[in-house]
Every structure is written in C-alpha cells, then in structure tokens.
Design goal:
The protein is of the alpha/beta class. About 25% of the residues lie in helices and about 35% in strands. Strands 1-2-3-4-5 form a five-stranded mixed beta sheet, with no helix packed on it. Strands 10-9-8-11-14 form a five-stranded parallel beta sheet, with helices on one face. Strands 6-7 form a two-stranded antiparallel sheet.
C-alpha cells in the first residue's frame, strides 16, 4: 500500500503540528481540543498559519512551493490564504480504497476534484478520469500534479458540478464510477452550493450518469 509522506506530529489547544515531506507546519484546527503532547512553545515549525478572520489566513514565514509523494505520485504543496495547502492527508485511506476498486479502462468522474489526488490515483490504476472543479486555479494545480507524476489519462473540466452533470445527462454520457467531494458551501458566479440544501439534487444527477450497477460511488462529506 502506498504511503503519503505526511505525519501528524502533535495537536491541541485548537492547533496542529504536521509534517509534509521535510516541511513542518502549524495550522489552526478547531477539533484539536485536547492538551498537546508537548508544550506548543516547544513545537518546531517551518511556517505557522494565523487566522485573519472571515475565512482568511496568513502564513509566517511564507515558503516556496514544495513536493511530497504518495507512492510514485507527486503533489506540489503551496501555502494559501484559505490555510489549505493542496492536499487533505485524512483522505489517504480513500485513495487506498479507490486504488483497489478501479478497473483498468473504466470511465471515472471526479466532482469537486480540487488539486487532483483522487484523480491521479484512479488514472494511475488505468482508469480514464474526468476531473471537474469550478476553480480554474485548482484545475491548473491538479494538471501540474499530473505532469509531475507523469499521468496523462485525465480530462480536465472547469465547470460547476451540477451544470456539468446536466450536460452529461443530455449527452447520454455514462460513467463506471464516481467520486464526489462537495464542500459545505461554495459559490462561483451566479451558482451557489449549500450541502444541506442541494445534496439530494446533486445525488440524483450523479445517479443519472452512472451505469445501473456502478463499480463504486465514493461520497466524501466533510461538514
């Protein structure tokens, strides 16, 4: 089984200390409510993330992008104002599961696909992946990761997930498997997505682009 070059070193007092490759970061974490193993003042870090309010964050000091690995796959990480850095390590178990489920030559749809970890895992396993995200910068970032990893069997789509699904239904395109990782809330242009309001409609649209007995349906819900 592939291993992500990552380690949660310590957490507590609503902070977490993580290692991504050789780079150590401190980030806010509302769920870290216990006492840390070591005093936070003793934590050694390369950069720390601070909340600026209204879901904006700043890093001190800023770091140049760097690359970590998951098996033979490579992911470029970057410090962002959202405190995210381009990968969610807690999803590594999903990637391991997907790598076992994917059939070579199958058609896979990845919605809200972000920087492409799941897309790359499926493509490396031999699937033909359609990667969809409304953020042009995220899709570019994902395609950069694919280039770093020498993976080329991915179709890149910058579009709202529900708009894309409705187009695929009209085109009668069918997929063997589907990965869905919607945010609690998202907005792009005139389109907004609210999980509690829109998830049932989204699931119905997903059902219509899947074959009657799909290889798998992976819903990742982080609320």
């Amino acid at each position: 089984m592939s291993q992500l070059d990552y380690e949660l070193l310590d957490c507590g007092d609503r902070l977490k200390l993580e290692r991504f490759g050789t780079t150590k970061l401190i980030r806010p974490e509302m769920g870290a409510i216990d006492e840390p193993k070591e005093p936070i003042g003793d934590w050694v870090t390369d950069s720390e993330c601070y909340s600026e309010g209204k879901s904006l964050f700043r890093w001190e000091p800023l770091l140049e992008p760097w690359v970590i690995t998951y098996g033979s796959l490579k992911f470029e990480l970057r410090l962002s104002q959202s405190k995210n850095i381009g990968i969610f390590p807690e999803q590594a178990s999903n990637w391991a599961w997907l790598s076992k489920k994917v059939k070579p030559g199958s058609k896979i749809l990845n919605l809200f696909a972000y920087t492409g970890a799941a897309s790359l895992v499926c493509a490396q396993a031999g699937a033909h992946v359609t990667h969809v995200d409304v953020s042009k910068s995220s899709v570019k970032w994902a395609s950069d990761n694919a280039r770093l990893s020498a993976v080329d069997n991915i179709r890149w789509i910058v579009e709202d997930a529900r708009v894309f699904l409705k187009r695929e239904i009209a085109r009668k395109n069918i997929y063997d498997g589907l990965i869905l990782d919607p945010p609690p809330f998202g907005k792009a242009g005139q389109n907004s997505f609210l999980f509690n309001r829109d998830i049932l409609e989204l699931l119905d649209l997903c059902k219509q682009v899947l074959k009657p007995e799909p290889d798998y349906f992976c819903l990742i819900a982080t609320l």
